[in-house]
Design goal:
Layout lengths: L16 H13 L6 H14 L4 E4 L2 H11 L7 E4 L5 H9 L3 E4 L11 H10 L3 E5 L10 H11 L2 E5 L7 E2 L2 E2 L6 E5 L12 E5 L2 H11 L7 H5 L21 H12 L1 H19 L5 E2 L12 E5 L8 H10 L15 H7 L7 H9 E4 L7 H17 L3
Parallel strand pairs: 2-3, 2-4, 4-5, 5-8
Antiparallel strand pairs: 1-9, 6-7, 8-9, 10-11, 11-12
Helix pairs in contact: 1-9, 2-9, 3-4, 3-7, 5-6
Length: 389
C-alpha cells in the first residue's frame, strides 16, 4: 500500500525504546503491581503540573470517583456538568448515589457555559460540585467558573482527561479547582495504556482519596511486602475501591511524561496545518483556538447549510477515503440511560446537540508524517468540495 492510499488512524501512541526498557526493568524486578515506580511517577507528575501531590489511579474515571467521594458527594447531592462529555464524567456521580444536573455548553466552544451555570446553581441548592470538562484540550473559562462556585459555595472538580499538558497563566488545568483528574488512556497525549492521575488542593481530601483508592486499607501493600521489618498487619478503615495503577503501567507513564511537552508541540504543529488549510472554507468551520490548547482533539465542524450531505455521510466518506475519524461527543442527554433518567430530549441542550450534529474529530497525534497530514487535509477538502450545494 502506497503512502497516498494507506489508512491514517485516528490515534496512535508514540512508544519508544525508553518505554520498552522501563517495562522490562519492572518485569525483572519481581514487583509488578503498585510500588516504588508508581510512587516515583506520582512525584514526577505532581512536580510537572504543580500540584501538592498526585495519586496514580487506573483511570481518570477512578480519579473523578475518588475526588467526588472525598468531597462528600452521595445520596441527596447533585453534580453539575455539561452533557457534552464522555459518560464516565457523569456516571461517577450516579455510582456514589448522587444525581446529575446538566448545563449546556457555550456558543463559542465545547465547554460548560458559565453564564448558564450561575442560573443552574441559583435554582438548585442540591448541587454540591461543578465538574468542568476541558473538552479536546481547550481550556474551560475557569476564572468565571471558580468565581461562581465560590459565590455559590460549591466545590469544583476538573475533568482534565483531555487537558494534559495544558497550562494557563494561573496554573495547569486540573489543579485550579478543589480536585482534578487526568487520563493516561491509549489515545491521550501521554499514555500508560490505561491509567490516570488525580490531584487535590487539600491534604485531607488527598488522604481520603488515597485510602479509598485501595480497598480502604490503612497502609499500602508495598509497605507490607517489601521490607524485612514491616508488619504484615493492616486495618480496613473504609469500604474502599480498587483504583491503583501498577508499576508496569507507571513505568510507561514515567517515560511518556518526559516527552509530554515535545508531544504537545507536535500536536500543535499538526493542528496549525489543519487550521490554515480549512480557514475561510465556506463549508467548514475550524475549532476555536487558544494559546494554551492541548489539542487532544481537532474538532472540525461542517456547515450543513453549505452542503448536500450531513455530518454522518461526511464522516463515512472520510472513512472510505482511508481517514480514521471519530465524533466527540454524542451528548449524554440523548443517550438512553441519561435521557430516560431525567426525561430529556435533544432540544433541552440545543448548543450541545447542534454541535454534535456538525462535528467530526480528525486524526491528530505525535508521529503523524507530513504525508499523513496532507492526506487528511486533501480528503476533507475533496469531500467538502464534492458535496457543496
Amino acid at each position: 500500500m502506497s503512502p497516498s492510499t494507506e489508512f491514517v488512524p485516528f490515534a496512535r501512541p508514540s512508544i519508544g525504546p525508553e518505554e520498552e526498557s522501563a517495562v522490562l526493568e519492572v518485569l525483572r524486578s519481581g514487583w509488578l503491581t503498585t510500588g516504588k515506580v508508581a510512587r516515583a511517577f506520582e512525584e514526577e507528575f505532581a512536580a510537572f503540573v504543580g500540584a501538592r501531590r498526585a495519586l496514580a489511579v487506573n483511570s481518570a474515571t477512578s480519579g473523578l470517583l475518588l475526588a467526588l467521594d472525598a468531597l462528600g458527594v452521595g445520596p441527596g447531592a447533585k453534580v453539575a456538568i455539561s452533557p457534552y462529555t464522555f459518560t464516565s464524567s457523569a456516571a461517577v456521580a450516579r455510582q456514589l448515589g448522587a444525581e446529575v444536573a446538566f448545563c449546556d455548553i457555550s456558543r463559542e466552544d465545547y465547554n460548560l457555559d458559565p453564564s448558564r451555570l450561575d442560573g443552574l446553581l441559583a435554582g438548585d441548592p442540591a448541587i454540591r460540585v461543578v465538574m468542568p470538562v476541558h473538552v479536546g484540550g481547550y481550556p474551560c473559562r475557569m476564572g468565571e467558573i471558580l468565581e461562581i462556585a465560590r459565590r455559590r459555595r460549591v466545590h469544583v472538580v476538573e475533568d482534565a482527561a483531555h487537558a494534559l499538558p495544558l497550562r494557563l497563566p494561573e496554573g495547569a488545568a486540573g489543579t485550579l479547582g478543589d480536585a482534578g483528574a487526568y487520563s493516561l488512556y491509549a489515545t491521550k497525549t501521554i499514555t500508560s495504556g490505561e491509567g490516570g492521575m488525580a490531584v487535590a488542593r487539600d491534604e485531607s481530601v488527598l488522604r481520603r482519596m488515597e485510602t479509598m483508592r485501595m480497598h480502604g486499607f490503612d497502609r499500602a501493600a508495598w509497605d507490607r511486602y517489601t521490607s524485612t521489618t514491616a508488619s504484615w498487619r493492616y486495618d480496613v478503615v473504609e469500604a474502599g475501591y480498587k483504583c491503583n495503577l501498577p508499576d508496569l503501567l507507571a513505568a510507561v507513564g514515567r517515560e511518556q511524561l518526559k516527552k509530554a511537552d515535545r508531544f504537545l508541540e507536535q500536536r500543535r504543529a499538526i493542528a496549525g496545518r489543519y487550521l490554515a488549510a480549512f480557514a475561510g472554507h465556506p463549508a467548514l468551520l475550524n475549532p476555536p483556538g487558544h494559546p494554551a490548547h492541548a489539542w487532544h482533539l481537532f474538532s472540525l465542524r461542517i456547515r450543513p447549510e453549505s452542503l448536500r450531505i450531513g455530518r454522518d455521510e461526511f464522516a463515512d466518506r472520510l472513512q472510505r477515503a482511508g481517514i480514521g475519524i471519530s465524533v466527540h461527543f454524542i451528548p449524554l442527554h440523548v443517550m438512553t440511560y441519561w435521557s430516560r433518567r431525567y426525561s430529556l430530549s435533544p432540544a433541552d441542550f440545543p448548543e450541545a446537540y447542534t454541535k454534535f450534529l456538525s462535528t467530526i474529530s480528525l486524526p491528530v497525534w505525535q508521529g503523524m508524517t507530513e504525508a499523513q497530514v496532507d492526506r487528511v487535509v486533501r480528503a476533507v477538502l475533496e469531500t467538502a468540495e464534492g458535496a457543496q450545494s
